[in-house]
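sorry for the late reply, my laptop died twice this morning and i had to redo everyting from scratch. anyway the thing you sent over, i finally got around to it. pasting the sequence first so we're on the same page, its 381 residues, then the predicted structure underneath. double check i copied it right bc i was rushing
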Amino acid sequence: MSFDKEQLNNRVKKSISRISRYSTRFEDNEIEDSSETGFRSLLARNYKKAALAASMLENQEDSREWFKNAANNHVIHVRQERENPEPVDTINFENHPSIIIRAIDEALIAGAEPELREALSVVPSFSAEFLEQFDFEDSPYRFYNVQVLAAIIRRSPDQEALLDSLRDAVEPLDDSLLDQLVRVYQGFVDADETTLRTEFPALVEAYGADTDDDPEYPDDYISTTITALLALAYHQGYDVEVESEYVLNCLLPPAETRSHRHARVCSHITDARVTIEDQDDGPLVTCLLDHPGDRDITLDDLPADEHGTVLTEKWLDGTIERLRESDVDEAQALGETLAEEREEGEIRRQLVAYQAASDPHLIDESIGDLDLNDVDLQKGR
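ok and here's the structure:
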């Protein structure tokens, strides 16, 4: 399938023009609080349209950047509605898992680690109450689809159980495409490359059977879901090749670079974020950990990099040195400040953990070995 270049260029220009207009309204505080999430949705939609058209024009750099921005706006949209639910129509909440799926897909395609982590960090807020609140036929599918994808990315121990629940949710829908999606997920859960090599082409075939052969725009033709899952397969080290017009192969890493170029995007995701702040009373290093809550939080749940496990003394020393050697002035300045405070022993470290479940699981004693200044556990979030 080929698209007219002039038409694609116009698609990009029109989308970017709308993005500029919406962004200006945000900057000028012209958008009321009650309308903000709607505009976030519009921004995300137009970033995705621009990204798809740019990819067909072989403009991979802009395409990845716009996919990343689409993911970011989708996450902001959902976070804002969940943090301020009063003015939001309840029915909007039923769509939140699907919006986060889009954000995860877009972040995977862009190879954007921060945006992927942010999207995954929302998933624990989708509790079982979702299934009690909504009784649409496809509500269980929406709920378990995002749970399974997040578990696969995190390589969580509950992948199999969640996949069983998704399979049960998909069965009454009588949808061959979703049935095939479950089979691809099974390949990830089983860590079976042979299964993935078989089921990915079948997923493409099932998608093609439902797709218009002569669409006006790439939005109606390209599968960001399949493209994202292929990106995930490459991130996790699987050798899977799918040649299809429905897939954005131009945005996937070439085979010779997959093993190292993208490996870190999905690594160490329990799900955790690290912040370093130079506060009035001294530097504060915080690890924000989203945890499934099916077990005690242990030292193994914290992410690690080449300097060691986050929040350890060794990791802190390595991070300070990395910041001091950065090419970015602000990072260098922060590194120097941390180094000075480190000599005085005045860098505070804390763990803030969110558990989706409200069961008895707490903090394992291995966390105590870190000798942190504070550990804050928030359950049922």
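Residues 33-56 form the longest helix (24 residues).
thats about all i looked at so far, will dig more tmrw
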